[in-house]
Specification:
By secondary structure, this protein is an all-alpha fold. It has nine helices and no strands. It is globular and about 50 Å long.
Length: about 250
């Protein structure tokens, strides 16, 4: 029981708290000019693109250990893309093309971003829990510190798109929980048992959802120049925080 408690604390430090810290600048982001908020959204796209490449690589690597892993990867990817697409299409058919739909679609996209990050963080939590249960405490420390910095930037990936829409006060709190708490859950599960197939499924689901939101956010790009600059900055930001996991 004590080991499960410590595993939960590790997930809390590595995932949930950093995501909320990444959301803290949200009030400041909302005071930015429209052009700077657009740049911030492009920064979020860069962060999400990096995560998409990361989780796709993880899913491919884990799914390659069994003969049916490729099917599992394909199913996860299709579900990850298909579910938010169907939900969004259904909302459009019900609400038509009103201005409320625009705001509703954007808040839905923000929640999908949170869910995609949460699925990604679930896989990270599994890795932390497995390392801790295996007595690899040095590796556990590296993973916790690295993922914590990584997840702080992921919180910013949520804050960017949310900053340009109207939302209720509880929305950022729920989004942060959806994105960060799976790290806690994954740490507990990983300390108990670790399944490469489960990791492959979670990562492929995250890859599909990330692909959907990247496409949706890119549609809102105002100018190619600001979009390009923001995306490159987001990728570099994630790259340098990711270096801590390989040092």
């Amino acid at each position: 029981m004590t080991d499960l408690f410590y595993s939960a604390v590790l997930g809390l430090v590595a995932g949930l708290l950093p995501v909320y810290l990444g959301l803290l600048p949200l009030p400041f982001f909302r005071r930015l000019s429209p052009s700077r908020r657009a740049l911030l959204v492009s920064l979020s796209v860069g962060i999400l693109l990096f995560l998409f490449a990361d989780v796709t690589g993880e899913a491919v690597g884990l799914s390659g250990h069994t003969w049916y892993g490729a099917l599992l990867f394909a199913v996860g990817l299709l579900i990850g893309v298909g579910v938010p697409f169907v939900i969004s299409s259904k909302r459009q058919r019900v609400n038509g093309s009103s201005s409320d739909l625009v705001g509703g679609a954007r808040i839905l996209t923000a929640y999908i971003i949170s869910l995609a990050i949460g699925l990604h963080n679930l896989g990270e939590g599994l890795a932390i829990g497995a390392a801790y249960a295996g007595g690899q405490f040095a590796l556990t420390t590296v993973l916790v510190v690295g993922f914590a910095l990584h997840n702080g930037t992921e919180g910013m990936a949520i804050a960017g798109p949310v900053s340009e829409i109207h939302f209720r006060l509880r929305d950022p709190l729920v989004m942060g929980f959806v994105a960060g708490f799976p790290t806690v859950l994954g740490s507990i599960v990983g300390a108990t048992f670790y399944s490469e197939l489960a990791g492959a499924l979670f990562f492929s689901l995250a890859a599909g959802a990330l692909l959907y939101v990247v496409i949706e956010l890119t549609k809102r790009a105002q100018t190619p120049k600001s979009t390009f600059v923001g995306i490159v900055m987001g990728i570099l930001l994630m790259y340098f925080t990711n270096l801590l996991l390989t040092i």
